[in-house]
Request: fold
Amino acid sequence: MITDFSTLNESKKYSIMSNTIFPRPIAWITTEDEGIVNLAPFSYFAPLSSEPPLVIVSIGHKENGEPKDTLANIMKSGVCTINFAHKELLEELKNSAEALPKDESECEKFNIKAKKVLEIFPPMVADAKCALFCEYVKSVDIGSRFEPIILKINHIYIADENIDEKNHIHLENIGRVGMEYLIDSTRVK
Ligand SMILES: Cc1cc2nc3c(=O)[nH]c(=O)nc-3n(C[C@H](O)[C@H](O)[C@H](O)COP(=O)(O)O)c2cc1C
Reply:
């Protein structure tokens, strides 16, 4: 079957893309503004190059047209921290997708511990096994309510227990498939 994308509405396009381009990694992003730590998941997320080490995350705008808090904070501070979630953090990750007022922290509301690791970057999720400390490079104008932003990885945290004696990294990140999650090769709601 061949489907002409120009005949589909946005939700159908989303459904097809998110059920075929999978599993997608989830950038669980912490940002900071005026001492408030914001946390939210984003699965329009991909690596772009290793030299320079770049990733891209596409962040939408809110229904009122304002940028989502994550995007607004990155534009203001120029930095963010991308956490990776494993299965024990699934409930926290889902909770953190709730659209809270900008002056309310998802970490505080949902009791997700965050720890400061590097002075100029937002704190990482304390229980995450891996985090990327990134600086903003540029936005790509795609004429959409989504704003893809390119980020450069400045530092990476990997928990010691996830690196073996041969220096190989072992992570079990949650993936996104359609509206579900992929954990240990199983789809869960
Ligand atoms: C697994 C998952 C993936 C998501 N991916 C994206 C995404 O790629 N881009 C986006 O704009 N929103 C995405 N969202 C929705 C945001 O997480 C949600 O709008 C959140 O409230 C944004 O928070 P903020 O305003 O604090 O930045 C996703 C939600 C979930 C649960």
